[in-house]
Amino acid sequence: GLLTRLRTSAPTIRTLSSSNSSQNIPSCFWKLGRLNHVAIAVSDLEKAQSLYKDVLGAQVSETVALPEHGVYTVFVELGNTKLELLHPLGEKSPIASFLQKNKTGGMHHICIEVDDIKAAMAELKKKKIRILSEEPKIGAHGKPVIFLHPKDCHGVLVELEQA
């Protein structure tokens, strides 16, 4: 009956053994680390802080101004990672232009730690991945960061942060 047909038509899932999968992964002089945070652009920073702190019960940092990046930041602690709430600071803020296109806000970028940001930059440039600055800038955590062009990363703005 139906159960027999479902069993026979179900796809077979195969896993790759470690010896096969490692052959396809190029060796790098740097490694990706953990997801540091997901950044969310918000049009009303106080309301967003209140949502995470008062409604959802998360630990929420104070607002920090980062004029060199054109943003105010607030971090929401989640245990295994963080959310970074971003709000425009100044007329040339990249978050202001993001919010013009996305009035209610939304996911802006993801941040992944790397063990060697300079090696990552060199190798990514060789692989034709565009980096949005010539040199790393100091990010919200006081560590060097770079951003990778979203068109080279399947539509996602990727921030790499020195671990």
From TrEMBL:
Residue ranges of domain VOC in the record: 34-163
Record's keyword terms, sorted: Cobalt, Isomerase, Metal-binding
The reaction(s) this protein catalyses: (R)-methylmalonyl-CoA = (S)-methylmalonyl-CoA
Claim: Heme is one of the keywords in the record: no
Any one Gene Ontology BP term: L-methylmalonyl-CoA metabolic process
Molecular function per GO: metal ion binding; methylmalonyl-CoA epimerase activity
TM region(s), chain numbering: none
Function of the molecule: Methylmalonyl-CoA epimerase involved in propionyl-CoA metabolism.
Name used for this protein in its record: Methylmalonyl-CoA epimerase, mitochondrial
Source organism of this protein record: Chauna torquata
